Amino acid sequence: EGEERVAGVDRVVMSAEAMEDLSLTFATAEIRELVPSLEVPAEIVADADRLAVIGSRVSGRIVSVLHNVGDVVPAGTPLVVLESVDAGSAVADFKSATAQAEAARSAAARAARLFEDQIVSQRRVEETRAAEQASVAAAEAAATRLRTFGLAIPLTEGAELGRVTLNSPITGTIVTRRASVGQWVEPSDQLAEIINVDELWLLASVYERDIRHVEQGQPVLVDVRAYPGEVFPGTVQLVEATLDESSRSAGIRVVLPNADRRLKPGMFATARITGTHAHDPVLLLAIPTSAVQEVDGHTSVFVRDDQGGFTLQRVHLGEEAGDLVEVLN
Known about the structure:
The chain is an alpha+beta fold. 20% of the residues lie in helices and 39% in strands. It has helices spanning 16-22, 85-116, 122-148; strands at residues 3-5, 11-14, 30-34, 37-46, 51-54, 60-65, 72-73, 78-83, 163-167, 172-177, 184-185, 192-195, 199-207, 219-224, 232-239, 249-257, 268-274, 282-288, 293-295, 298-304, 309-314, 317-321, 324-327. Helix 2 runs antiparallel to helix 3. It is elongated, with a radius of gyration of 35 Å. The mean pLDDT is 86.
């Protein structure tokens, strides 16, 4: 309704009312500087090198939980305190082995002095040295067991026997907590998760036909639904070396600075990889990609004439750059 197709001519005439109802917008083909780019859907995720899963290295019961979800904690912050029989036994063994090593060391030194005074035999000296070496090895084994349980050496003076404190290995925000006072935990249990969101990853896939245009170090402009009209800059960090056989695409990873922490893991985004061709920005005749239509299998545009009509004109297109496309002829 309101349209008239002129016989034998690829032309459409519309009434003023029809044009108003359709809310048509118009653009003029212009010479513009185009920076070639490639747009792909993507997802923002946590940087795997800035994520920590907190778990115990020893079985025990939780006696204290010191922080909750949403807390921002520096590296080394105590998070959970456990009471463990195994840890208590390991501490006792370490103290005993350390004391025996010290006694054996003193005995070996005394035997060496007595031998110089010709009071004891060479054999006695060798026996005390062997005992010293054995006791030192036992103490080192006990220390290794403590470190395996996550206990620091030297032991904290006045610390309760069998208490194990789980600290945050990174600076970040606690995003999950699965620890409660009185809960029994095993080394396989995950008690908390901490993420440093000052820098995030953006994951996307590029089809086989376009992969030659993407390489490490290229700049990327990222749009997210949560902040329409804003663009967040990033850099291509990785292009996977293999293709997914089903989708015929390769994954790429983009590093996104996020000092203000506005971006969140889990957000969907659009990544515009700029400079995806071998040449620098050039001046080209360009139109909006939204103006291009496919009619009878040909890319075409409708050109408004002086009489208020629209003439269908086939066009050959070149490179795309964002929301613009080059017109070759």
